[in-house]
Amino acid sequence: QQQVKQSPQSLIVQKGGISIINCAYENTAFDYFPWYQQFPGKGPALLIAIRPDVSEKKEGRFTISFNKSAKQFSLHIMDSQPGDSATYFCAARRSNDYKLSFGAGTTVTVRA
Amino acid sequence: KAGVTQTPRYLIKTRGQQVTLSCSPISGHRSVSWYQQTPGQGLQFLFEYFSETQRNKGNFPGRFSGRQFSNSRSEMNVSTLELGDSALYLCASTTNGQDGYTFGSGTRLTVV
Fold this sequence. Notes:
The complex is a heterodimer.
Chain A: E1 4-7, E2 10-14, E3 19-25, E4 30-38, E5 45-50, E6 56-59, E7 62-67, E8 72-77, E9 86-94, E10 100-102, E11 106-111
Parallel strand pairs in A: 2-11
Antiparallel strand pairs in A: 1-3, 3-8, 4-5, 4-9, 6-7, 7-8, 9-10, 9-11
Chain B: E1 5-7, E2 10-13, E3 19-24, E4 31-38, E5 42-50, E6 53-57, E7 64-68, E8 74-78, E9 87-94, E10 102-103, E11 107-111
Parallel strand pairs in B: 2-11
Antiparallel strand pairs in B: 1-3, 3-8, 4-5, 4-9, 5-6, 7-8, 9-10, 9-11
């Protein structure tokens, strides 16, 4: 049972465009929501994370938007570059035991 | 500072054999988690060790086991390998679970 639902499964965006990935969760015990970026042959790398008391967090071209009442959060990649082509995973961590649950992943392809 | 180191990077085993994978966490990190990554199932949580004790366990059969040593290094063992165990096995470490997890590059296990 997927505790974190992620969409879309894949997306293609032109260079300079905006990539948007959405995630939804049900468990109100989650208290930390990271996004990971994974390139082929590598492990996931932490990209940006947010806690539920904040509605938005921006780091460079990457922004997380968080809607606590809707139990949804999303990643926006602004000015997408070919080097951003990777698989992105959202995740949620339980507050009582710190266990991370991952979304199914979104493969982003940025066309030059 | 050195990252999370997983060895070996690649393994080919025969069905029915057993395998041991190793993970050296970032210095000072006491929590080590293991994940199985496959194209069909995504990132699935296996177990987490903190200070040599298993703190969390995922929904995997008993053929999957792990342990953590006093220096925080961790091993996972899979006995009686099945073809379906072919996957990328990822290890992630964190200080105590309250901050972000850092992943290793994984061990690619192929069962033939």
